[in-house]
Amino acid sequence: MSAVATQERAVGATAPAPINPPRRKWTRLILPVYTWLMILYLASPVFVMILYGFNNIPGERNVPKWFGFTLHWWRDLFGVPGMVSALKTSLVVAPVSAVFAVIIGTLLGLALGRYRFRGKAPVNFVIFLAIAVPEIVLGSSLLSMFILFKGIPIGIVTILLSHIGFSIPFVAVTVRARVQGLDRSLEDAAQDLFANPLTAFFKVTLPLIAPAILAGFLLAFVLSLDDFVITNFVSGATQTFPIWVFGATRIGLPPQVNVMGTILFMTGVLAAVVNVLVQRRRVRV
Q: How many CA atoms lie within 13 A of 12 on its CB side?
């Protein structure tokens, strides 16, 4: 017997017996199953909305029954009287209110996240109160204020002012959280390299808080586009898209509403996907 064979036998004799791997418990499936069930539950209304946008109903009002597949409602998207004008109003108010809310909320978030000043605690409390207060209370309060100031006509102006008002706290909280996590030494380094405070802000601070500003803008835009309760108080004779949909439900919802909801939903999904891709690209760079 060769020396190599003897050595292999000796190693085999001293090697420990293989340990059986532990059996994976069935309880590991609880969290994934629960997560997917919750996602399905929360997304089921959206799936139904998308599905009924292709429902070949015999009339022009939604019926809780599947009649077959059709693209007729997509081709006749703007065939419902009143829906187009209400949607235009919402698409005018939402970006304008979001821009103003971002400007004011960003400055407020910078002040709260960076500086100490007298009255900071009451300001934080007011911001929290504006987020936590029920919409019906806020809407009735705004209506009372606009009635008190008789020079403000109830309509698109009051809708715009109201949407700016309730969107500012959300933007301020988002920007404040980002500002509190910034490294102040980066601005100090920029000023050590002879950059004045304004240049340091635009070259260093602003790019760092840009994701929070973008998130605040999208949040304010969606809140404005989606709001019904507050807008219903301060709109007067002006109709936004949510108010028009609420009125249409009394006589039956047109299928075009499902189509428009699908388009708005897919636009939001596309914006979220683009934002994720941009963030990943920045991390790689």
A: 6
- Alpha helices by DSSP H, the chain: 3-14, 30-52, 72-75, 83-114, 120-132, 135-148, 156-180, 184-192, 197-200, 206-226, 229-234, 241-248, 255-284
Residue type, 251: I
Query: Rounded to 5 degrees, what angle do the CA atoms 19, 20, 21 make?
Result: 110
Report the SS3 class of residue 134: coil
Q: Count other Cβ atoms within 10 Å, centred on residue 109.
A: 28
At residue 270 the predicted structure's pLDDT band, cuts being 50, 70 and 90, is: confident
d(CA 21, CA 97): 60
Of the CA atoms within 13 Å of residue 167, those in its CB half-sphere come to 34
Closest to 51 (Cα-Cα) out of 275, 261, 273, 268:
261
CATH number of 83-253: 1.10.3720.10
Q: Is the pLDDT of residue 6 over 60?
A: no
Task: For residue range 208-256, list pLDDT tens digits in order.
Answer: 888 889 889 989 999 999 899 999 999 888 899 999 888 887 777 788 8
Average pLDDT score over residue span 186-191: 74
Domain ranges in the chain are 83-253
pTM over 0.85: no
